[in-house]
Every structure is written in structure tokens, then in C-alpha cells.
Design a protein that fits this description.
mainly alpha; two-stranded antiparallel ribbon; globular
Amino acid sequence: MRYISRVDLDLTQIKYLNKQQQILKEIAIPFDSTSFWKNRYETIKSKGFLQKLFSMAGNRKRCMYCMDSKGSDIEHFHPKSLPPFDKMFQWKNWLLCCTDCGRNKGVQFPIDKEELPLLIDPTIENPWLFLDLDVNDTWGLIGRHDLSRDAISLKGQTTVTVLLLDREDLNKGYKKTWKRLVKIVEDFLHTPYEESEFIEVLLDDDDHHLLGWCFHGTGENESPFSELKQQHPEIWQRFVNHPELLIPATQEKL
């Protein structure tokens, strides 16, 4: 997972969602939320909402949960079949999702004692505050160890469990991407070249957006990124001070 910057809607899209919200207010409860959504889905696609989500995902149709290149559907972070139903047409509640993650999540929406979500919403929080990558064993995502509580992040572990983010096919992808990033950094440390070129190569080869873990998670302690931090602090700070560089949809050329 990675942090995703949510883009704004145009006026026509905003009016459409407001209209659907008003219709929902006038419908007697209970009602068939699945059919209600399905009957409007083609219109939703025609109005460019999916294209907005694609742009947020870096125009690669990456699932916003697992980062696999199968993101093809609108996912309701707060399930559309669970009250309050007005979240069905809230733009901030929509993510781009693949079939596997959508099926795994289903209508699950665990909350904590304060009734706050126990699933990571990548559009409002940095997933690497709650997640870790197990590069020593499974290569899967795990809940991050919270030093302040000396416990595994409940939100991180719940997200992994509900979405099955530690499934084998994903782990293979994480491992492949990590080894590729390691090679790039090791080569640079051995024979440094133009800074901007190095950063661009690193970004282009990060298929699973692990650089967020490397620069803003516990990956900073893993070799060779720990050496990069020590030997090239100026490059390190460019990522740390400008996390938007790790977001393809809004990435500026360095």
C-alpha cells in the first residue's frame, strides 16, 4: 500500500453525487443497496469517476489496497450495504480496487472501541505507519510493531488479515520489486551518477510502491537503504521532505 492523494471532482460530478445523496434520503429503509448501486454504475463510469480513480493510482490501474495492476472497480471503503447509507455516494469513500481485494473485504468493516475504522484508508493516512514488509521470511505485509505500546499495530494487522495482503502471489511481487530496488541502490553506492537520474530510475522500478516503506517506514533500517541514508543524506532528505515524490499521479520531474 501507499499514500494516495485524492483529486478533486468537477462541478458536474459533484452535482451528480449530490443528486444521488438526495434520492437516498427519500428512500425507505431497508432497501436493496446493491441493486440501487448497480442501476447507476454505468452512469457513474460515463461521468468519468473511474478515470479520476485511475489518475490517483498513477494511471496504471493499481489496486489501492494490494498495488497489483488489476484495479478495475470502485470500492466503497465503508461498505455501501452498511448504514449510514449516505456514504454510498461520497467521493472520499471511493477507492480503486481489484476483484481479489474486493472479494476478500466484502462487507467487513471492523472498528475499534472508539468506533474508528480498523482498516487503513490510503487516501487519508500513510499505510507504512501501520504496516511492515517481512523481508526476512515470508516477503508479505505484516502489522508494524508499535514501540510506544510494544505491540503489533492493530490497524495494520487487521488490514492485512481482512484483505489477505500477505497472500502468496502478492509476496512474490513484493520480493521481486524489493530485490530490484536493492540492486539499483547498491549499484549507485558503488558507482554514483547523476542524482536526478538515480531518483528517476528508482521511482520507475518501484512497481509495488515499496519506496514509501524505505523512506517513511522501517525499511530505512534495511541495507542498502541504511547506507544510502548515511552516505547520501541530501538524496534521502529529498524523499523525506517531499513524500509527494513517491506518488506517481502527482509526481513532478526532479
